[in-house]
Write the structure tokens for this entry.
Amino acid sequence: MLTRVLEPETLDHLAPDDPVAQRSRRDLRRVNAFMGARRILARALTRALGTERRAGLRVLELGCGDGRLLLGVARRCGERWPGASIDLLDRQPIVEPETIAAYAAAGWQARTLVADVLDWADDERVGARWDVIVANLFLHHFDGEAMQRLLAGCARRADALVACEPRRSRFALAASHLIVFLGANAVTRRDGVLSVRAGFVGRELGAAWPAADADWRIEEYEDGAFSHCFVAARVAPSPAP
Ligand SMILES: C[S@@+](CC[C@H](N)C(=O)[O-])C[C@H]1O[C@@H](n2cnc3c(N)ncnc32)[C@H](O)[C@@H]1O
């Protein structure tokens, strides 16, 4: 098994308006499409929430980047989850007004939260709750105490967490060296390799989950060729406000 290695990714340290960063974020859309991230997340959401119709679903996406990834889910699942709201949290202010408008056109009310996720996790004043928190290519930025704080914040404020992360396998590592063929720039190519090295296998996320087993249904599994998924769903969800 590859040892997990966490190193800072370049994109996280580039200004939002840096053309290299903008290009890398466009690359990420292609990488997500290639990995089948939308379909993988839609399947994971169904595992967490079930298939029944549910109005007024409250969703929070952590490390949402440009915020577009869940648009496809909003468009496809509008019937199942009518009138949903989505909060898009990222440290960088990069969700464009057009993206918010596109969610509205799909029937979801979107708003942005510009914050460091650890501040969000630790902030006792955050009173809001969500039915489900989603993370894509995000949890692998953390380990140790920071991961514990992040997951504890999720367990306190939501009835489910759904994450789709890089799988730390030799196959995924080899593939990450080939994203040059998706037209990726140097930043995306470097970050792609680092992401796989910082990715997850087995029950690593479940082992870091802070809440009592009896209160949560935990699933951790591989999906697609490169993804490692984590679904935690509260056994008795909190009543709607
Ligand atoms: C690899 S990108 C993934 C973006 C998006 N989830 C996607 O799949 O396209 C990671 C994102 O996490 C954000 N990020 C990194 N560290 C963060 C932190 N401590 N708090 C909030 N956002 C963070 C970065 O700004 C970046 O947008």
Notes: DSSP finds nine helices and seven strands in the chain. The two ends are 45 Å apart (CA to CA).
